[in-house]
Design a protein that fits this description.
- The chain has 21 helices and 13 strands.
- It is of the alpha+beta class and 452 residues long.
- The chain has 2 domains: 230 residues, 3-Layer(aba) Sandwich (D-Maltodextrin-Binding Protein, domain 2); 153 residues, D-Maltodextrin-Binding Protein, domain 2 (3-Layer(aba) Sandwich), CATH 3.40.190.
- Strands 1, 2, 3, 4, 7, 12 and 13 form a 7-stranded mixed β-sheet that branches. Strands 9-10-8-11 form a 4-stranded mixed β-sheet.
- Helix 20 runs antiparallel to helix 21.
- Belongs to the bacterial solute-binding protein 1 family.
Length: 452
């Protein structure tokens, strides 16, 4: 039985990978006119909220930069409709530790957005989380598939609203760099390595790797492992029913080493990759014309919000292709954040009701770099065809998905900076030849975290 409360999920290969393969590579902006909606529009709201004059709320999330700024626009609309005042509280990973400190100090936020699978379960176990009220539950029933509703449920009680999702099996590329090197988007891992060799030989390192953020490295591993080992093995490793010393892990790390082991493939080499945080990994790929720091960057649809900080235009300068097939089928890993009330207040429940509505999601979707699992969201609000088609594919996947592996793990193994899987894969990036040593470290840390 899979744990409930995960934030990153692995969706069906066919629904998303096929849609992505057909629509992502050469999409432009499309010129679709955005429908009128919240934030300055005259359209009637679709969700009714209570008046909360004078009420003060705090919302905590690990979001920074443009992601945080765009979410604050959603909170401003909530303030406008209710009369409440909402403050965004920047959180740090692991968020359970951050929230524990806040709660111990008697100052928990009213609502938190949790990015790891264990975080919701921990919040419920610690008696921090409040069950969803009837208004939020009604929005959930109206707008979400059963699978997404179950993800926010612990036992038989609903606690969370999956406000944000992500397709994390995408490789974004600098169109000018690809054109200058005469490279086409690869469909298989072998083709990816060949393309990387051609790109690097042309003078542009192939890949910008955000090695300073260990979570990106878990995503690299998971995409390779899912495609190469298959879903049954993936599920077993996610539950630690097979060990990290298994031959399937050896094979996946060896495959990943084909990329990480080539210093000329990585922007700045291994040391440069290990000092590169996620936002920079994106921006350095889309600055410098046809001679950027790297030609490609791997990560989810949310990369678009960081591309927006450059002069590059999604759909023209910045294009995307699905993560290449390593085995028989291409992988698709998806994720998101679940909103949970930590105070039994009317304001906290009202905010969850709003976050479960299409009104809130459409405000955020218009900004780009955001993907909603809310099936009532009009796809036309997404700012370009690339993001629009990613969103359509997510909704088309329905309930057929799996949990992201690192987010199924206890936070000490799968969600803590400088520890567990994050640290082991950073060490692997520094020395990709040490497959056996990496496996031994992963297994030791996993056994300790899982208690077996």
């Amino acid at each position: 039985m899979r744990r409930h409360g995960t934030s990153r999920t692995t969706l069906t290969w066919t629904a998303l990978a096929a849609a992505a393969a057909l629509t992502l590579g050469a999409c432009g902006d499309g010129g679709t006119e955005e429908p009128q909606g919240p934030e300055g529009s005259t359209a009637a709201p679709r969700v009714q909220l209570p008046k909360l004059p004078g009420e003060k709320l705090e919302v905590a999330a690990v979001w920074t930069g443009p992601e945080q700024e765009n979410f604050i626009k959603v909170l401003k609309e909530f303030e406008k409709r209710t009369g409440a005042s909402v403050t965004f509280v920047p959180a740090q990973d692991p968020i359970v530790t951050f929230l524990g400190t806040k709660i111990a100090g008697g100052a928990p936020p009213d609502v938190a957005l949790l990015p790891q699978v264990g975080a919701l379960a921990a919040a419920v176990e610690n008696k921090w989380a409040q069950p969803l009220g009837p208004e939020a539950a009604a929005q959930l029933d109206a707008n979400y598939s059963d699978g997404w509703k179950k993800l926010g449920t612990v036992g038989d009680t609903r606690y969370g609203v999956y406000y944000k999702a992500a397709n994390k099996s995408l490789i974004w590329y600098n169109a000018k760099a690809f054109e200058a090197a005469g490279v086409k988007p690869p469909k298989t891992w072998k083709e990816l390595i060949t393309a990387a060799d051609t790109l690097s030989a042309s003078g542009t390192p192939a890949v910008s790797v955000a090695g300073a953020d260990g979570w990106t490295l878990t995503d690299w591993f998971e995409n390779i492992y899912l495609s190469q080992a298959g879903p049954e093995k993936y599920d077993q490793l996610a539950k630690h029913r097979i060990k990290w010393t298994d031959d399937s892990v050896k094979q996946a790390l060896t495959t990943l080493g084909e990329l990480f082991g080539r210093k000329d493939f990585l922007a700045g080499g291994p040391s440069g990759a290990l000092s590169t945080e996620f936002p920079k990994s994106v921006t350095q790929t889309f600055t410098g014309g046809d001679r950027p720091a790297a030609a490609m960057v791997f990560e989810g649809d949310f990369v678009a919000v960081n591309i927006a900080q450059t002069q590059a235009k999604v759909g023209e300068d910045a294009l995307v292709f699905p993560f290449p097939a390593v085995g028989a089928k291409a992988p698709v890993v998806s994720g998101g954040d679940v909103a949970v009330a930590l105070k039994p207040s009317k304001g906290a429940q009202a905010l969850l009701t709003f976050l479960a509505s299409a009104d809130a999601a459409e405000i955020h979707a218009r900004q780009g770099g955001f993907l909603s699992p809310n099936k009532a969201v009009d796809p036309a609000v997404y700012p370009n065809d690339i993001q629009r088609n990613i969103a359509k594919a997510l909704i088309a996947a329905g309930d057929d998905f799996r949990f992201d592996m690192s987010d199924q793990a206890p936070a000490a193994f799968g969600g803590t900076p400088g520890a567990g899987e994050w640290k082991a894969l950073q060490d692997f990036l520094a020395n990709p030849s040490d497959v056996a040593g990496t496996q031994a470290k992963l297994e030791a840390d996993a056994a300790k975290a899982y208690g077996n």
